[in-house]
User: Fold these one by one.
Assistant:
Number 1:
Amino acid sequence: MNPARLRSIFVKEFIQMRRDRGTLSLLLGVPVMQLLLFGFAIRQDVRNLPTVVFDASRSQQSRTLVQQFEATDNFRVRGAVPSYDAAIAAINAGRARAAIVIPEDYARDLKRGRPTQVQVLVDATDPTASQSAIGAAMLVGQRANVERITASLGRDPGAPPLDIRVRPLYNPALQSVLFIVPGIIGMILSNILIVITAMAVVREREHGTLEQLIVTPLTRSEIMLGKIAPYVLVGLVQISAVLLVGHFAFQVPIRGSLLLIYLTALLFIVANLGLGLFISTLARNQAQAMQVSFFFLLPNVLLSGFMFPREAMPEAARWIGLALPLTYFLQVIRGIVLKGVDLVELWPQTVALVGFALLFFTFATLRFNKQLE
Amino acid sequence: MRQRAAVVEVRALRKTFGAVQAVKDISFEIRAGEIFGVLGPNGSGKTTMLRMLCGLLLPTSGSATVASIDVAARPDQVKARIGYMSQRFGLYADLTTEENLRFYGGLYGLDHDLAERLAWARERMRLEDVMDRLVAPLSGGQKQRVALACATLHRPPVVFLDEPTAGVDPGARRLFWHIIRSLAADGTTTIVTTHYMDEAERFDRLAFLSRGHLTAVGTPAEVRAAFGQGLTLEDIFVQLQEQNG
């Protein structure tokens, strides 16, 4: 390794990065944009489902019930409909995602102490969105029941015999942004770095400059390190940007050690750069490099646990997930950022990351060197 | 010219890939300051030989020394002492001429004398107007001279030019040969592969390769004589190509 030669490549690489506006905005804009999108627009805790009401009872009691539904924030009443069929039609047409149907006898049955049924229709085409609405509707019913029973007893029943209390740890408000921010760090690092490295190396080959580099005194490892090290830096800048925006714009706590975050991220970065380099040896041009990268990127989004819980996946999908470095890194980064745990708890995942880094890098280096022959 | 020292010495050089003999026991010498042409149809072993002389490919047997370094024993040292300009120029289109020069200068370990060499390249390669411009929009002839500057910035005693004048207009080509001639006058040895036969007359000496064999070596006049009266170099080339096909 000759420091002067390495410096020359770094300088060149950074000049190229600066000139390539598209790539530059990809490198710096995408992490922040993804974060803002996930933070503001995409909420998995769905609120304000547009709702229509078919109130056949037209009573004080039925209006109170509708208010109780609205008070959950899950339902936003958009208007009344004259019939059950009209409620269905509104959902079919997409004007409403839910409908509350209150029967004609509602108030009378309540007064007489007879059981009565209220129907809530929920458009469950999107299971995530409907889930919380369904939960909220059940809760409204239970609460109303408890109130009525208490009232009918004519006295305060005192403490209920069984009281189950759920205490959500680490993310008490159950905000999905807290969960998503550390995830984005992992996603960005893997997806962008894989594509960028693969493209950068393939571009050199396409333009015939790689052919030129190998006749200079540069050694193979210098070529590789020179191409890759600048992107390690880019990766670290990206993490910092996401952490900063996440912390200050979305109040994501950083409970664990920053040093540990960066150290484990470094391992993860090296693993991904190795994968990018490997892809560059498979692709003949930049378009191909892009395509091959996407082949690796999709499982990252779907199977790593970034968006969908791995616990819910079929066994085969879980196995594939185990072959992705991102799966382990997500556990590590979420553990450090949200739970404040340290290496003692996270060593199995960290060892897995070291393994991936070594494996990918060795494999990529062997193939890359062979291709330079 | 005969009395000058040999800068490139090739002795019974051979390269085989599996069962295929790409270069078969070739021997010749190139002297300091010579412009030496290597001619031959595609598949004649030109590229393989060039790659061995540049330290990129180890010979199967035989030996070659370039600037008194044994290419088989010390391929990495050879790389520092030669310049190489490929057909595709190997320039970074999104860098300026000067940035390209600084980059390659850095790779060859130029440091305190970089400024002096940049001034040299600017004047000698006629790059006055393009130093601060990106390489991408430059003409073929300008790119060619930038590439030559990158390959010679570190004062290599031996320069390899692989198909250097493909896609360059005649005026730029003439300027290019003028510059090569001036480098040779300074003592730089130039080895050129080409299949433009009209350029072959510009070489001090040349070698014809065919199917891995060296079929002729000498001045253009000597080579013509060896193949028979009245033949041009182009006729000879076509003959060899037909034998190859």
Number 2:
Amino acid sequence: MHVKLHVWRQADPDARGAMETYDAPDVSEEMSFLEMLDLVNERLNAEGREPIAFEHDCREGICGSCGMMINGQAHGPQKGTATCQLHMRKFTDGDEIYIEPWRAQAFPVLKDLVVDRSPFDQIVEAGGYITAPTGAAPDANLTPIPKEVADASMDAAACIGCGACVAACPNSAAQLFTSAKLSHLNLLPQGQAERYQRTQAMVDTMETFFGSCTNHGECQEACPKEISIDFIAYMNRDYVKAQIKNRKLLSQG
Amino acid sequence: MIGSLDSHGPAGDIDTRWTQHKFDMKLVAPNNRRKFDVIVIGSGLAGASAAATLGEQGYNVKVFTYHDSPRRAHSIAAQGGINAAKNYKGDGDSVQRLFYDTVKGGDFRSREANVHRLAEVSVDIIDQMVAQGVPFAREYGGLLDNRSFGGAQVSRTFYARGQTGQQLLLGAYQQMMHQVHAGTVELHTRSEMLDLVVKDGVASGVIVRDLVTGAVSRHAAHAVLLCTGGYGNVFFLSTNAKYSNASATWRAHRRGALFANPCYTQIHPTCIPASDEFQSKLTLMSESLRNDGRIWVPKDPDETRSPDQVPEAERDYFLERKYPSFGNLVPRDVASRNAKTMVDQGKGVGPLKNGVYLDFADSISRVDASTIYERYGNLFDMYQRITDEDPMQVPMRIYPAVHYTMGGLWVDYHLMSNVPGLFVLGEANFSDHGANRLGASALMQGLADGYFVISYTLANYLADLLGTPPVAVDDPVFDEAQQSVDDRVKRLLSIGGTKSVDHYHRELGKIMWDYCGMARNRTGLEKALSEIPALRDEFWRDVRVLGDGPMNQSLERAGRVADFFELGELMARDALAREESCGGHFREESQTPEGEALRNDDDYAHVAAWEWGGEGSTPTLHTEPLTFGHVHLTQRSYK
């Protein structure tokens, strides 16, 4: 098949950047989207033009490295699918494809399609953990956890931290990411001791980088792991409770 | 062949050896730990767990990862599970049995004492990860679920859906981020180690390149921990992530660290075959599929009918035919080699005739479609996304692919290389899997090293250095190392050749796969040893690395591929020297009359550790004899 690409090119974080157009003939339907970009890059290299920078690693939809806006959709047209798992058979001969980096103020462009997603790590750093120093753990079967609870926690923990939720949101909000990380830990018995401090710390950190949620639901649509926005409701509930609980905890001191 | 390497393993009863040794080793007091600087390279299971643990204990830790976030490390892609001798099922598991299975599974080419320690600490890993909030699969009663994996006769594998690696890595990553918050761990993302700094034979620091700004910086420490994974990407096509590379270990090798058993590579039988010449990587399908799928090829190489039209009598269920007792569940190496034989005989299936069928039709009619879908739905969906075929309707096509490398830098019992101060953890070292790794054991080893071994053995090393500051970063050894990094970057950018880095990587991969892949022989390996240097010379003359900005992905890849060339040559040399078949290393000259791998314990029951001889010079072989006091050497049989 033969497609035409319009790709965002930007030399460095301070450069102005612009869309450039590349003709891509002889693309196989069996190729993944990233293999198509590999091919385009090989040809650019052969012509003496610098290849398009983009992030990718596992190419199995689990590491969360890849991600780009494809025709305005985060990770492209296939539901529940990261860019690396999208295949060219989802496009048709003659298509024009617009490829842009994640668009969000909190994710500045470093080069071409590569953005800086480090605010996600800072949200985790603020409280996205359970304090359990190495060596201090009791036997793993000491606390039974109902299967439904473990499953719900796992549903949230499946987040790959790719940033599609932020890119898809008209407000560039990070509620889906933050609530997934929070719910993974807040649902489990092990996570209870730090539940409300964690919630407050992570939400407050999130607010310093990202916009606010106005329930558009675009994040859930874009999520390659199909994480539910129900988790945002859980997070909001815990955040409200945290305002009271954290004060009570202080008063015990 | 010279010298006999000493593993520095303690003596005594194997059941209590590690416990006693923990008592015998030196300690660093809590108030002295902040006086020590430790560098950790890599943030996968081994690196993140080590950094978190050492940070909690009070050391000054610096972590470097070339990813944009530590959570991207390739540990994240492990699907199946993690073994532990918990015996929660009461079905006869024990530390002794996990130890035995691992030594035997490794085809008697691992070090007994290390493997026993691994089995012992396996139980602590599960406790730690559950406390960390890893949502392992549970039974309805709320207790942890287990499954049997990779042909084990007990249920000892813990799992989190098909994403066990992801969940374990997130657990270790979170614990490490907690220490970043606490200020004990300093995290450097998008930072690639490009050289090891050695002063007077002792590891003293690293040279790092910032992948965004291009700035090269120097970092000194009392100890350097390499937790940088395996080197399967030498083959270009593998199940490894695209960035996975061997540069950190290879740079350390060039600075004096011995590289052990480089020829031991694991080829995983159930991967999706390549679809075209642009294939960029191969995707693994969990081997649990072999529990319900039957593997076959048409008997007639010229068969053109669709698989459901091929009558039963005209199908060859070759594993069931050759191995009646294990059938489709034979170990990875056996399943892989037999699939290769079928494809080599022209019986391969699919448009490129490069796969074999894995057929669920019998299971679907025996149980029912929904049960099969419930078991493997996520894998079926992934397969369908990639191939556009539904395994519920049409048999899957599978073919073996490079998956894991058992070889790595040589380490002693303390996980320290022969270069004092340089420690190597996880897949990057060679120590625990022998010539073949059992399923669900990679995650176990990475976490065992990082959580429960290194903090003891590192303290033992550091205790003698109290009061000694790290080497100053303006020391001439740092000048020399940085100069060599700068020179190499300049050289790669100035070649201005005609072909891309990926072109050379693919060509190298083809040589490796053809001559140093699933089956090896003298003629092929000698051919590889002449073709690789020739291709390497061409690479250094003709590669084209464009771009003048600081962030340059072609430049990053070029450096890694340049190192793969040297490592690939060493792999072929090691494979040639080991004139026996063992585990993942199958020498065609050494097989039983039935075509099975034939070990030679008299001549090759040793670790082969290679010393860098300089560019263009032959490396020197050192050996460490392997003795087996607790497990009897037997020839594996799966008939």
